[in-house]
Amino acid sequence: PLFCFQVLGKEERRVRANDREYNEKFQYASNCIMTSKYNIITFLPVNLFEQFQEVANTYFLFLLILQLIPQISSLSWFTTIVPLALVLSITAVKDATDDYFRHKSDNQVNNRQSQVLIRGSLQNEKWMNVRVGDIIKLENNQFVAADLLLLSSTEPHGLCYIETAELDGETNMKVRQSVSVTSELGDPNNLASFDGEVVCEPPNNKLDRFSGTLYWREKKYSLTNQNMLLRGCVLRNTEACYGLVIFAGPDTKLMQNSGRTKFKRTSIDRLMNTLVLWIFGFLVCMGMILAVGNAGWEKEVGSLFQSYLAWDTPVNNFLFSAFLSFWSYVIILNTVVPISLYVSVEVIRLGHSYFINWDQQMFCSQCNTAAEARTTTLNEELGQVEYIFSDKTGTLTQNIMTFNKCSINGQSYGDLTDPLETQPKVLDFSLFNPLADPDFCFYDDKLLESVKVGDSCTHEFFRLLSLCHTVMSEEKSEGELVYKAQSPDEGALVTAARNFGFVFRSRTPGTITTTEMGRTVTYSLLAILDFNNIRKRMSVIVRNPEGRIRLYCKGADTVLLERLHPCNQEVMSITSDHLNEYAADGLRTLALAYRDLSEDEWEAWSESHRFADKATDCREDRLAAAYEEVEQNMMLLGATAIEDKLQEGVPETIAVLSLANIKIWVLTGDKQETAVNIGYSCKMLTDDMTEVFIISGHTVQSVRQELRSVWLCAHCTRLYTVGSRINAKLQMTGGDTAGEFALVINGHSLAHALEADMEAEFVSTACACKAVICCRVTPLQKAQVVELIKKRKKAVTLAIGDGANDISMIKSAHIGVGISGQEGIQAVLASDYSFSQFRFLQRLLLVHGRWSYLRMCRFLCYFFYKNFAFTMVHFWFGFFCGFSAQTVYDQYFITLFNIVYTSLPVLAMGIFDQDVPDHRSLEYPKLYEPGQLNLLFNKREFFICIAQGIYTSVVLFFVPYAVLSNATQSNGVPLADYQTFAVTTATALVIVVSVQIVLDTGFWTVFNHVFVWGSLGSYFIIMFALHSQTLFRIFPNQFHFVGSAQSTLLQPVVWLTIALATAICIVPVLAFRFLKLDLKPQLSDTVRKHTKTQRKPPGRNTGSGRLGARGGSRRSGYAFAHQEGFGELITSGKNMRLSSLALASFASRHSSSWIDTLRRKKHTHTPPSTSGESTYRLMT
């Protein structure tokens, strides 16, 4: 039997109440959670093991081991172990700190107290000691300790209320209900004798699904998610409840959803990894060249004086000497890739992240939310974004719904009586209805008069809105109602009914109580026909106090109008026209209908519904069929129109990002018409566009035909206009005729377009358009679109959204941005960056992103330059020292060069540098384009940097060598000694790289000055200290350069040599930069020059952009936002002005032709096969 249970346990879970011995057979996880990675014993070995997974750390460990071999080491071991230990220590401290806080959090959670029913009495137990099968008592405002099956509650009918903010970010209350058979077990004595057994699904991460069966007293009862209280929830407005532990600890759905986010790397990271491999190959080549030189030298020259200078003991021939020499030079030349590079990169990224967090211009005072960089690894990628994928509701819009207009029995309400009136008068509902919401705004008094005079259709309209919903009501005091709605749409509609005299007051599993025109009415709630994404509607069946049974239904007009009685044709035609008008205004629409049921019809349908509800197989399909049966032959009441206003600054932001050549795609679950109208409102779609194409085919062939027709039309138009003078001028200024088109594609068409054999055509067609809107898409399709662009265009993508349905898209994109809005914080938790307003995106990309990319590129260019200049001197010296692996510099200089003498200035440049101020970055979005084209750091720029570094090393070696070889001191003593040469070369190197970073720094702060001049000063201070008599006396075997610095730097010829070397290194760089600035300036150079000539405070010229009048096709914008399941639970008892940006004309005149040439090469479209004949188009 035990073996049988263990086999079953893999596919299902068996839990018996109050029987720990039985449940322990299955070895279920305890309720102790552990998110920490280390303990005191395992920290050091595990952390070091993890750090040496990094190739760079392993490489430097390998070098350290080589340095411990005396025969091949020309450097002391501390030249490598000091920087390596520093890096490992810093990382270890960071990891230990992070893990300490994880331990602290784990202990806080595990030591929470819970009341557990043990041997018939309630005892306080720590959460970590709770086991599967235990019965727990929860009290109001307590966190749920584990995933529980709700057994009973102090509320009637076994109801309890929970808040799931920690699970899904939603702060509205949700209701759960116990199985009816256990709802009366409210007493601990009764619960102690409860021995029911639950057979259910194994642990999983699906928050909205649970399937199981309760076996008790030889009967079985089906269990759903509505019977479950999940760990992380908080009990609200319920005195107490009892629950049976089904999943504990790591098996709970909260912990199952806490998987690690996919690690993202930037394109610069990937390029750096490639370059490091190339550098390592270059290092090996240099080592081999010098090893061959050593072999030749030892054979031809070294062998001649073996009698008085024999080889060391293990060396017995020139080949073995060459072998050892190779490894010696690998050690000496390893600084071409110093370990400090990786540390510096992380410090710079951390600084950039703090700048984002501290940016007051990205702080929303309204919701007291600051921008947050939730990762430190992607900052420079923000400066390279080419495609933005955005959700609509809550991201572009506010997701705050207001009841705007309605149509009742063919009469439209909500239009302003005087459209020219600047401040229309808001209706005062307080005198008419003391229960009205004072914040509700409506302007058409004709609707209020219709209610007052008792129009039956109007009353029935608002009666439907007050009854057909799943809103929960909380009455804090007499008449002070607070509605808890699953979606803002629901709340707006119920609030509208409330203000017009039909007030929803309260509900029980079987009743709904309202106040209708001042009279309290209680309806029997017979059934709720719940909403889902397939039905796109919901209904309730109620019995009024007079005994009449009526079905009320609200839903998308596309599904509801086809279920009306034939006698509704006239009113349906008028209402459809109203729906089109509302959708054309960008409003979210909804149709309302009702049907009267006789007692016999209700009884017959109720039986079929009961049968479908209790079915163990295909339950959802059977319920859908039952719902379909009764939702027929309905009478149309009218339609509602809800406004979801655009967020502040959305049109301006999209306009600026478009000028930066960033393509914006909107991926939304809303209807096509609503999405299109929002597209016009936010300036994605404009009246200046040649055409807006609609792809709405239902078959693979029709979608392919439409895509090909769109591609043909767009490219034929482009070819036609190329010859025109206007287009010629556009070509000269970088214009792109592809920007004249937009593409709108529906979800069912997108499913076909994403198939493998059609995705290339879809991408080439979509990318030929300036704007793309995908409607009625699923969360999975959002992610698929992002992945497709990543794969086909090799472009940096950014996804932005605010809801749980955007998480897959956010995780799929190179960069994920979460909006902390009305749909909770799940999107924020899954994101890389977060803020509260879409308009902050332009500052994130055009300021912080562009600066981060610029700074990182300048840092890397300088870093590789200075290290090649530093290291390659050893290579040239090898040809003059018999290839003996002798170093040029003092070993302490080698150790300190990258971690003291040159580290801070380049860090300051990498953190603080900027080419133009932030307001200029926003005024001139074309400045963003070099990042998209990866112009500032690529393989070409890398080779230029190392070429400059090698040139500098040649000058730094051969100029002092040539001068000092024949130079003498003032007393006639020759200067041609090793120590004088080493001090001269090292000093010249530090001065040259310091002058170079002065030239490279575009923006000076106090930190830059302190770090540059301080580092230069520290070099001389440390050098004089290391060459002092004091240290020589204490450590005579370690400090061999005693007095060298003082004697060398007192010679005028040495300073003349240093000045000559510096001039030869720097003058060509200055000459090249002056010529480039004069002959081929970059856009940033032009902007700086333009800024200096203006000498005016920053500002923008304002202009106006008009919204084109659009009409015609059906544009219903209904979108139901709440989730499936509430209905079953309850019934079981269960015109914006667009700023004219300063760059609009300026950038087109000054944008560099070489950027445009590169862009045209990069975005050459590959035409799909062209056999299309027609397309569905929406003419603008």
UniProtKB/TrEMBL annotation:
It is a multi-pass membrane protein. Pfam families: Cation_ATPase (PF13246), PhoLip_ATPase_C (PF16212), PhoLip_ATPase_N (PF16209). ATP binds at residues 391-393, 490, 531, 554, 588, 668-670, 776, 782, 805-806. Residues 1086-1114, 1159-1180 are annotated as: Disordered. GO terms for cellular component: plasma membrane; trans-Golgi network. Its EC number is 7.6.2.1. Its cofactor is Mg(2+). It is found in: Endomembrane system; Membrane. The active site is at residue 391. The keyword Protease does not apply. Residues 1089-1098 have a biased composition (Basic residues). Mg(2+) binds at residues 391, 393, 802, 806. Belongs to the cation transport ATPase (P-type) (TC 3.A.3) family. Type IV subfamily. This is Phospholipid-transporting ATPase. It comes from Astatotilapia calliptera.
